[in-house]
């Protein structure tokens, strides 16, 4: 399920079945020429990933709106994320996953109220290439196995 | 006097804004009118058959085939990945099933649950379907898996739209 009119309408009467939420965590720094391209690529990759997982598990996973933050601001952001998580848990969602390529979150995992799903991203590449596609498929497969282990 | 003839600033703005607004309204109305009077005019691109596999590849065991189509929605065009489970049944007829669970839309897998090696299994809420796509009573789905329309030409299998298999158990 996604944050769209059609899906949220379907979600509400069936919420007992949709107990898992994935929040994509996406860093960016619009002031930095050096990191901009890489960050934009990671954002695209993150969306391909989470869309794939959502499509496969549409009836049980809700894909939250993307959570954007300035690169490196983990210490300030953790409380805001926890506020998001509390709101989702009010529904109630039982499993909250934070999906990110940003390894800095690992250090904060203990302070976050969701599970961090960290995947080492690809440094660069072409989002359309078969190499990227097989990377995404392989990783998405493992991520969904991991999610299912919580069910 | 001459003041009267000059278009005041306010009047000028009024004229131009009405002009722009009217133009915008016309722009918005035109497509709405078109959809309203003739919904058939909307292009529909889902009706095409797409070659998915060679018929020699088909076995009695359902296999997963994937392909992409360009889907045109009202606002944008996107590439959509489609999947089907295809096999030959006991009568050697081709069966092409949609993998989308009729409960809430997860993707079902063939024989992925050890306890039910001859069924389609939905990982989300343990929905099950027999090999011909009929939903197993007592599991969440209430309708069978939809079937794809298909045709065979020159040894290739072409799949079209899905249609509800109706009924349900
Ligand atoms: S979505 Fe398949 S059993 Fe619920």
UniProtKB/TrEMBL annotation, chain A:
Lineage: superkingdom: Bacteria
This protein's name: DUF2487 domain-containing protein
Organism, as annotated: Halobacillus aidingensis
UniProtKB/TrEMBL annotation, chain B:
Protein's membrane topology: Single-pass membrane protein
Gene3D superfamilies: Rieske [2Fe-2S] iron-sulphur domain, Single helix bin
One annotated Gene Ontology cellular component of this protein: membrane
A Pfam cross-reference name: TM_PetC
Claim: Chaperone is one of the keywords in the record: no
Superkingdom, taxonomy of origin: Bacteria
Keyword Cell cycle attributed: no
Assembly, per entry: The main subunits of the menaquinol:cytochrome c complex are a Rieske-type iron-sulfur protein (QcrA), a cytochrome b (QcrB) and a cytochrome c (QcrC).
Domain Rieske: 86-159
Stretches that traverse the bilayer: 12-33
Family according to the record: Belongs to the Rieske iron-sulfur protein family.
Keywords from the named record: 2Fe-2S, Disulfide bond, Electron transport, Iron, Iron-sulfur, Membrane, Metal-binding, Oxidoreductase, Transmembrane, Transmembrane helix, Transport
Protein name: Menaquinol:cytochrome c reductase iron-sulfur subunit
Alphabetical list of SUPFAM superfamilies matching this protein: ISP domain
Gene Ontology MF terms in the entry: 2 iron, 2 sulfur cluster binding; metal ion binding; monooxygenase activity; oxidoreductase activity, acting on paired donors, with incorporation or reduction of molecular oxygen
Phylogenetic classification of the source organism: Bacteria, Bacillati, Bacillota, Bacilli, Bacillales
CDD domains: Rieske
Location in or out of the cell: Membrane
Role description: Component of the menaquinol:cytochrome c reductase complex. The Rieske protein is a high potential 2Fe-2S protein.
């Amino acid at each position: 399920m996604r944050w769209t009119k059609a899906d949220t309408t379907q979600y509400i009467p069936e919420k007992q079945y949709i107990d898992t939420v994935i929040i994509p965590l996406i860093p960016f720094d619009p002031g930095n020429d050096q990191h901009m391209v890489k960050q934009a690529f990671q954002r695209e990759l993150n969306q391909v990933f989470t869309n794939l997982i959502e499509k496969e598990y549409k009836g049980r996973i809700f894909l939250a709106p993307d959570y954007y933050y300035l690169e490196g601001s983990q210490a300030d952001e953790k409380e805001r994320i926890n506020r998001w998580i509390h709101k989702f848990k009010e529904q109630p969602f039982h499993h909250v996953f934070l999906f990110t390529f940003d390894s800095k979150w690992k250090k904060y995992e203990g302070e976050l109220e969701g599970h961090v799903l960290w995947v080492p991203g690809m440094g660069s590449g072409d989002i359309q290439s078969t190499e990227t596609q097989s990377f995404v498929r392989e990783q998405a497969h493992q991520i969904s196995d991991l999610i299912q282990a919580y069910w | 006097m001459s003041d009267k003839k000059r278009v005041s600033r306010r009047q000028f703005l009024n004229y131009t804004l009405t002009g722009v607004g009217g133009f915008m309204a016309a722009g918005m109305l035109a497509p709405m009118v078109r959809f309203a009077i003739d919904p058939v005019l909307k292009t529909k691109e889902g009706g095409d058959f797409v070659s998915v596999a060679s018929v020699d590849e088909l076995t009695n065991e359902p296999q997963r085939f994937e392909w992409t189509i360009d889907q045109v929605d009202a606002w944008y065009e996107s590439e959509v990945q489609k999947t089907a489970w295809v096999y030959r049944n006991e009568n050697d007829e081709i069966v092409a099933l949609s993998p989308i669970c009729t409960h809430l839309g997860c993707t079902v897998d063939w024989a992925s649950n050890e306890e039910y090696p001859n069924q389609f299994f939905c990982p989300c809420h343990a929905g099950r379907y027999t090999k011909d796509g009929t939903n197993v009573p007592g599991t969440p789905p209430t309708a069978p898996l939809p079937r794809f329309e298909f045709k065979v030409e020159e040894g290739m299998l072409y799949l079209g739209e899905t249609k509800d298999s109706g009924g349900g158990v």
